[in-house]
Every structure is written in structure tokens, then in C-alpha cells.
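Journal club side-thread
Mid-discussion, someone asked how the predicted structure for our own chain would compare to the paper's figures. Pasting it here so we can look after the session.
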Amino acid sequence: MRLIAFFLMLLAGPVLAQGRQVAAIEARDGAFRVTLADGSVREREALAGMVLVYAGGEQRIRMRVAGIRPDPGDASGRRLLHDFRDAATGEPVCQAAPDGTREGFPIAGRADAAGMLHAAEPGAFEIVCTAGAQGKCVRFGYAPWLAQADGRPMLELYNACIRMVRADYCGAGEATTRDGMNIDLYDVHDTQTPELAPEQSFEAAWGPDGAVCVAHVRVKENTSLERLAATCPRLAGKLGPACTEASARAAGARLFNRSAP
């Protein structure tokens, strides 16, 4: 699930019990950072208990950060999971991820209608959950606040990963995957490495605009190579046998996946 953070309307909680005015709030490295009017700063785990109210049009979301803990899947210990709850009911805001987590993190920037993240004005951020493609890609190691091994921004791989998770081959925001699909992803930097399960074969290479090429589709009931040829002109000549991992790497692709054909 994705929540769109438009304007911060209220911030309250034990850490701010003395009533000091909030001057700014931002997302930094997947965690919150609050600057108070007196110049002091509260951040990361110290902000457990705060309440956020977002407004966008007629939409109002009042959400409490019930807890903040290190992500057990992150060897660095820096990535935090935030337990976002409906402030009125106490129910989790996030759906359950495959590992059972119902948490998430704030990410600096703005996402478009297709979920692609872009740089935005200072203080702008999105809240993403571990169950969604954005949250999964953060936990795969492609957090957009990081840098790739060659120094390039990780944002490129993060957006490519979202396309890959959703099987959004055309890059038009159309997901053609199915819940519970087993995919094997890997990249040029070995942030993720291939498991090479014998029942899987190379499916596609990915970039921020969708597939770079497609050897076979993931879910035949949802799309086909013939449909991609008809609806995605940029993939012409890059489908079926013409798409190999070697040719994709030669074309500059940096993210790949395997799946059962």
C-alpha cells in the first residue's frame, strides 16, 4: 500500500510533549527527521509515537507511528521498519508482506501514478509499505537513498526494480504479474545474485522505463509477446529469442530476472 504525503498538518507524540513547535519534517535514509523551532532535531527511533496527519484534496489520513525497529533483513542495521497505525482504530495501515511484516518507511521524493520515484521539493516524501513493490525493492537492497557500487544513484535501479516486480514490461504502469509469483532477480553489482533454479530461465532485463527486452512473459494469462509487440513499439526486435542476458548487458541493462517460462 502506498500513501501520498501532501502536507504535514500535525505532529505530536511523547517526544514532543513539551509543546515545542515543529519547524520541518523530512525523510532521510528511510527514516523521519524532525527539526523543532528552537533548532533541535529528533530523528529515527526517537520519533516512535508521533502522529502524522496528511491532507490531499478531501482526503485526510491521521496515522500514528506505533513503533520503529531495525529491519532484521538488513545486515547494516541502519534500515528501519515503521509500524504505521490508523490513529483512530489502532489497525495497521500496511497489508502483510510475504514475510508477515506490516510495516514501512518514508522515502524522500514524489512518486508518479506508475509508482516511479522522482526528486521533489525539500521535505516531500512518500510512505511505502513492505507489502508493495516499492517496499520490496527497498528491502531487496535498492533503497533510493543509497548509491550503486559505481557511485551512480540507486534511484535508477529502484525504479527499474518496481517495473520488474510488477512485470510492467511497457513501462505504462500496467502490472501483469500475479501475487505469489516466484522470481529470481539480480543486477550488475551483485546486490542480488541469481539463484539459478533449474525450473527458471531468463525472463527480462529492466530499466526505469520498463523492460529493456523480454525473453518470455511471466504470466501468460495476463499478457504475451505478441501483445507486447503490438502495444510497445520500443520493444520491437527485442522479444523472444532476440532477448538474452548477454545482449541485454551489452545494451547497458543493469537489472535482470528469471522466472518459470
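Post-session note: DSSP finds four helices and 16 strands in the chain.
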